Amino acid sequence: MGTVTAQDGTSIFYKDWGPRDAQPIVFHHGWPLSGDDWDNQMLFFLEHGYRVIAHDRRGHGRSGQSATGHEMDTYAADVAAVTDALDLRDAVHIGHSTGGGEVARYVARAKPGRVAKAVLVGAVPPIMVKSDSNPGGLPIEVFDGFRASLVANRAQFYVDVPAGPFYGYNRPGAEVSQGVIDNWWRQGMSGAANAHYHCIKAFSETDFTEDLKQIDVPVLVVHGTDDQIVPYDDSAPLSAKLLRNGRLKSYEGLPHGMLTTHPDTVNPDLLAFVKE
């Protein structure tokens, strides 16, 4: 574990496990979580001989709680600071949800040789919010509701999201894990309210269309068809079409948080793509 200092002086926390000469896999977490959300996948890939790295986005987890920089350009610059400091080459970048947007923005701008492949899991690209150019998106009122709930009672909001739509626990017959809900709450509450508030705009209103078009490395786009946070139809299929070398893998009936609820299903597919 360590920290890297970003361009504006903000401290970015990261975990770095495994052989230093192994191929690195970098994990990018969703809102409002931390690198801890990747524990299952990090242990899985560590067992398969990879070097695994996960950072906490600024204002999230153990990273610095900056007053500014809570938008995708700065998030991508922070990732570049970490990859430069660790001199990561031929890395595979895997991003979930907001982290998928961060991956798209970073990989599109990465220095030659830094990135070998990328994976977008339940990711927010191309763009979430509804507009004339994105008629299938979610109305801005949905995200205004997120902001209002965060301001009114962040602690309760961070119970309601994982206990309901994030993991599909609101579906009939779902096997609910209180530990998973508590861990989501723990990660969320360790971050800064201002960072989480502004990140809602970053993940919902950023247009990643041009980023996706610029990426030339192989990209696997994976998504659950019952994703209630980032609806399937307006995300994964559209991203796969925009990518030069994209491949779409859909999981029928799986939720947004399928990396946690169904790791035995998703992890082998991630490994197969990395090993190709």
TrEMBL record:
Task: Write one Gene Ontology MF term.
Answer: hydrolase activity
Q: Where is the AB hydrolase-1 domain?
A: 24-259
Entries under SUPFAM superfamilies matching the protein? alpha/beta-Hydrolases (SSF53474)
Q: Which UniProt keywords apply?
A: Hydrolase, Oxidoreductase, Peroxidase
Recorded hits in PANTHER family, A to Z, give: HYDROLASE, ALPHA/BETA FOLD FAMILY PROTEIN, NON-HEME CHLOROPEROXIDASE
The UniProt family comment states: Belongs to the AB hydrolase superfamily. Bacterial non-heme haloperoxidase / perhydrolase family.
Protein's name according to its UniProt entry:
Alpha/beta fold hydrolase
